[in-house]
């Protein structure tokens, strides 16, 4: 009697005869990643017919059905990529597909489903998560006598997905020592591991999950399938609450190791792909690369080991790029956010900036003056781990209290509270300055003798110029006028442009009573 993995292997063999009716093999590209001194290749599934690997399994499953079954209709549930695969297959096979998608599915994925499927598909938006959507799809399929095409927990679907691994074997670049595959439901990881281990028995296959999506890793640790109560959806293509009935035992037997990555690590992997290849994967599409980079940084990958990762998709709502860029840091530097405890007197911001190592880049400032003898501005800094340790050590030696709030919602929402009535002889300006390390410090050095910050709002955008909304206060109107004249004479390497905003307009724009946890010290119990 054949084992489950033997059956899966046979399905991959059969799939090789079907899937190329709708797509060509995708390339295997050698990467030149920053600070990575080991050979690593990327299987570029983002270059497939739907910009993701899901076309393989969807088409294989539907092509394997009888004509009679296809005539009764196809039903699927998907947050996007599997839906596109089903839509493409429905168009090629000339059958009808009803596709259930969560109401929160990005518009770009809905549009692509309609583009690939045309009149052959109907989209039904239902539920707020995949489980609700899938339940509705199963009920619809049962009521109408249609065939439900599962996105991962089906051996024929997995057989199609396994053709990806066949192309790696046939590429001539092997054998590989390591393979990194993202895990959502586990279908891709199981099929890739099944095929590779037949040809390269010594290969180590690493399954990669998000830290708040790790249903497979948790199931392995507990010895049975676990249904997670909460699943983070930043990497929406891998947001699965429970492993499949087939994928769980297959991954248990075939995957050598499981590693979890944070959303920040995924964003850093996306940035690495952009910097090395000008490619922007979707978050779940970069997850396997994030796993490789994490293990490389931890010293678990030897320089002489050859690895490959699967760039599994590039279907993403454009607006998500803002969050990705913000979480990815700059260069090979991670971004951390520190809330600093400072006395309410002139020169304190400058005092902190002087403690920053030269290679540190200030990427965010959130500060508004509030009542009390102590202020709590937030600084976002991009620096190496070594420089971050230096900053923390220096602050401690100087007796400056600080708190790392990088994972807090305080930073995420950037609402900066200030009390306008506390600002004496205020001057509010919108400034542009050269975006380089130390530029903000140069500006502060030239005004610190007379001006004290009462508001500062700046975030790094990746442009050649930085833009900030700055509020300053003075002991006298004469001091304010002096700084006005001084700034008018600044050269362009200090300030490129400056535009004054009246206090009334500033208060109206910012909303005088806006609440911010980010620029205030939170009391215990809040």
From TrEMBL:
Organism superkingdom: Bacteria
Classification via SUPFAM superfamilies: ACT-like, Tryptophan synthase beta subunit-like PLP-dependent enzymes
InterPro entries given in the database record: ACT-like_dom_sf, Ser/Thr_Dehydratase, TD_ACT-like, TrpB-like_PALP, TrpB-like_PALP_sf
Group of enzyme by EC: lyase
Cofactor: pyridoxal 5'-phosphate
CDD domains: Thr-dehyd
PROSITE patterns assigned to the protein according to its UniProt record, in alphabetical order: ACT_LIKE (PS51672)
Keywords, in A-Z order: Amino-acid biosynthesis, Branched-chain amino acid biosynthesis, Isoleucine biosynthesis, Lyase, Pyridoxal phosphate
Domain ACT-like: 427-499
EC number(s) stated in the UniProt entry for this protein: 4.3.1.19
Catalytic activity, reaction form: L-threonine = 2-oxobutanoate + NH4(+)
Associated pathway: Amino-acid biosynthesis; L-isoleucine biosynthesis; 2-oxobutanoate from L-threonine: step 1/1
Similarity remark: Belongs to the serine/threonine dehydratase family.
PANTHER family: THREONINE DEHYDRATASE, MITOCHONDRIAL-RELATED
Entry protein name: threonine ammonia-lyase
Organism, as annotated: Akkermansia biwaensis
């Amino acid at each position: 009697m054949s084992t489950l993995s033997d059956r899966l292997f046979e399905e991959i063999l059969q799939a090789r005869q079907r899937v190329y009716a709708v797509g060509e093999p995708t390339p295997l590209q050698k990467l030149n990643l920053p600070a990575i001194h080991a050979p690593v290749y990327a299987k570029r599934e983002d270059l497939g017919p739907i910009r993701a690997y899901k076309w393989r399994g969807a088409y294989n499953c539907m092509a394997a059905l009888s004509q009679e079954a296809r005539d009764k209709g196809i039903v699927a549930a998907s947050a996007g990529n599997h839906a596109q695969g089903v839509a493409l297959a429905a168009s090629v096979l000339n059958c009808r597909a009803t596709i259930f998608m969560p109401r929160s599915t990005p518009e770009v994925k809905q549009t692509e489903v309609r583009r690939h499927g045309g009149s052959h598909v109907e989209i039904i938006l239902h539920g707020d998560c995949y489980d609700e959507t899938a339940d509705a799809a199963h009920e619809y399929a049962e009521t109408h006598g249609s065939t439900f095409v599962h996105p991962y927990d089906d051996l024929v679907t997995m057989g199609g997905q396994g053709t990806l691994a066949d192309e790696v074997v046939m590429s001539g670049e092997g054998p590989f020592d390591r393979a990194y595959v993202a895990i959502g439901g586990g279908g891709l990881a199981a099929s890739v591991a099944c095929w590779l281990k037949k040809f390269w028995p010594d290969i180590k296959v690493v399954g990669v999950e998000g830290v708040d999506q790790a249903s497979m890793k948790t199931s392995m640790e507990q010895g049975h399938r676990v249904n997670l109560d909460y699943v983070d959806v930043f990497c929406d293509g891998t947001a699965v609450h429970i492993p499949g009935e087939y994928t769980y035992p297959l991954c248990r037997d075939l995957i050598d190791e499981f590693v979890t990555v944070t959303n920040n690590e995924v964003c850093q992997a996306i940035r690495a792909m952009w910097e090395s290849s000008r490619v922007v994967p979707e978050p779940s599409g970069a997850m396997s690369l994030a796993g490789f980079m994490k293990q490389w940084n931890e010293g678990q990958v030897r320089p002489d080991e050859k690895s490959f990762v699967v760039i599994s998709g590039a279907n993403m709502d454009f607006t998500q790029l803002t969050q990705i860029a913000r979480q990815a840091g700059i260069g090979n530097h991670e971004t951390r956010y520190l809330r600093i405890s400072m006395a309410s007197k002139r020169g304190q911001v400058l005092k902190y900036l002087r403690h920053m190592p030269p290679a540190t880049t200030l990427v965010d400032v959130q500060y508004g003056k509030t009542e009390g003898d102590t202020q709590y501005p937030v600084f976002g800094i991009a620096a190496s781990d070594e420089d971050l340790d230096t900053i923390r050590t220096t602050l401690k030696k100087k007796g400056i209290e600080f708190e790392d709030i990088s994972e807090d919602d305080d930073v995420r929402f950037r609402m900066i509270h200030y009390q306008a009535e506390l600002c004496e002889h205020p001057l509010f300006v919108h400034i542009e300055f050269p975006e380089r390390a130390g530029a903000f410090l140069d500006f502060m050095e030239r005004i610190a003798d007379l001006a004290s910050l009462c508001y500062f709002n700046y975030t790094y955008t990746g442009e050649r110029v930085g833009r900030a909304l700055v509020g300053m206060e003075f002991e006298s109107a004469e001091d304010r006028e002096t700084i006005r004249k001084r700034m008018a004479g600044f050269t362009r390497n200090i300030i490129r442009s400056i535009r004054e905003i009246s206090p009334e307009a500033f208060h109206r724009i910012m909303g005088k009573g806006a609440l911010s946890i980010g620029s205030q010290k939170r009391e215990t119990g809040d």
